[in-house]
């Protein structure tokens, strides 16, 4: 058995997190379990961070990579947005247990268009639409349900630029306050789904190390229930 196998009882419990909002909003949940991360990922160059519990460590990865690290056993637990999990599941079905909606990282996945764009006419059944998005699977399913043919253009950032320079007709993106849309003369015209972050667990680790993971899962559950709305 590999020394770093999640099934090895001697291996520290590994939690995969991404920097930024998810990391910041996960810290109070870890505190509920009596765990403090000892270094700040914004100032530390380390990608493996120690915690106040020598049996628990945190690894810092890209948000889109969190499900991969957990599914393939490099991490026991992780925190990822529903948007990321939908896209991951399209390429890697199965293999992840999602026991808890942590009710953090809340936003909406929306369709946004330039001000004045005739969206109702553009999404009539049988129409064709160019859609720029990072969330290809969610966008495909949304417009397929409307009977709209879409040309999907995958982008990784600056989504708002696409309809302004003619690359796409509309965008599908995460919206929190809407201030970035407004600054670029765009408006959200349709909500696709509410997004929040989920606790995800490696299935083999849960089976082999449940006695070590369950207290963490219980603490996350308690803390998430205390989150507002």
UniProtKB/TrEMBL annotation:
<keyword id="KW-0808">Transferase</keyword>
<comment type="pathway">
    <text>Amino-acid biosynthesis; L-histidine biosynthesis; L-histidine from 5-phospho-alpha-D-ribose 1-diphosphate: step 1/9.</text>
</comment>
<keyword id="KW-0547">Nucleotide-binding</keyword>
<comment type="function">
    <text>Catalyzes the condensation of ATP and 5-phosphoribose 1-diphosphate to form N'-(5'-phosphoribosyl)-ATP (PR-ATP). Has a crucial role in the pathway because the rate of histidine biosynthesis seems to be controlled primarily by regulation of HisG enzymatic activity.</text>
</comment>
<feature type="domain" description="ATP phosphoribosyltransferase catalytic">
    <location>
        <begin position="62"/>
        <end position="220"/>
    </location>
</feature>
<dbReference type="InterPro" id="IPR013820">
    <property type="entry name" value="ATP_PRibTrfase_cat"/>
</dbReference>
<dbReference type="InterPro" id="IPR024893">
    <property type="entry name" value="ATP_PRibTrfase_HisG_short"/>
</dbReference>
<dbReference type="GO" id="GO:0005524">
    <property type="term" value="F:ATP binding"/>
</dbReference>
<dbReference type="GO" id="GO:0005737">
    <property type="term" value="C:cytoplasm"/>
</dbReference>
<dbReference type="GO" id="GO:0000105">
    <property type="term" value="P:L-histidine biosynthetic process"/>
</dbReference>
<keyword id="KW-0368">Histidine biosynthesis</keyword>
<comment type="subunit">
    <text>Heteromultimer composed of HisG and HisZ subunits.</text>
</comment>
<keyword id="KW-0028">Amino-acid biosynthesis</keyword>
<dbReference type="GO" id="GO:0003879">
    <property type="term" value="F:ATP phosphoribosyltransferase activity"/>
</dbReference>
<protein>
    <recommendedName>
        <fullName>ATP phosphoribosyltransferase</fullName>
        <ecNumber>2.4.2.17</ecNumber>
    </recommendedName>
</protein>
<keyword id="KW-0328">Glycosyltransferase</keyword>
<dbReference type="Pfam" id="PF01634">
    <property type="entry name" value="HisG"/>
</dbReference>
<comment type="similarity">
    <text>Belongs to the ATP phosphoribosyltransferase family. Short subfamily.</text>
</comment>
<dbReference type="InterPro" id="IPR018198">
    <property type="entry name" value="ATP_PRibTrfase_CS"/>
</dbReference>
<keyword id="KW-0963">Cytoplasm</keyword>
<keyword id="KW-0067">ATP-binding</keyword>
<dbReference type="InterPro" id="IPR001348">
    <property type="entry name" value="ATP_PRibTrfase_HisG"/>
</dbReference>
């Amino acid at each position: 058995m590999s020394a770093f196998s999640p099934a090895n009882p001697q291996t520290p419990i590994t939690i995969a997190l991404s920097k930024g909002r998810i990391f910041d909003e996960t810290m109070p949940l870890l505190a509920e379990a009596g765990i403090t991360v000892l270094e700040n990922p914004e100032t530390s160059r380390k990608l493996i961070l120690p915690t106040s519990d020598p049996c628990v460590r945190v690894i810092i990865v890209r948000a889109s990579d969190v499900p991969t690290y957990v599914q393939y056993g490099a991490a026991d637990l992780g925190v990822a947005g529903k948007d990321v999990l939908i896209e991951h599941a399209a390429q890697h079905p199965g293999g992840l247990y999602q026991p808890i909606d942590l009710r953090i990282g809340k936003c909406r996945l929306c369709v946004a268009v330039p001000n004045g764009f005739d969206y109702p006419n553009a999404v009539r059944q049988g129409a064709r639409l160019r859609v720029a998005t990072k969330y290809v699977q969610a966008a495909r399913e949304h417009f397929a349900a409307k009977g709209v043919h879409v040309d999907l253009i995958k982008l990784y950032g600056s989504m708002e630029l696409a309809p302004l320079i003619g690359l796409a007709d509309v965008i599908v993106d995460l919206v929190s306050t809407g201030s970035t849309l407004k600054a670029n003369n765009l408006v959200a015209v349709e909500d696709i789904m509410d997004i929040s972050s989920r606790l995800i667990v490696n299935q083999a680790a849960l089976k082999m190390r449940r006695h070590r993971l369950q207290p963490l899962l219980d603490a996350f559950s308690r803390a998430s229930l205390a989150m507002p709305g």
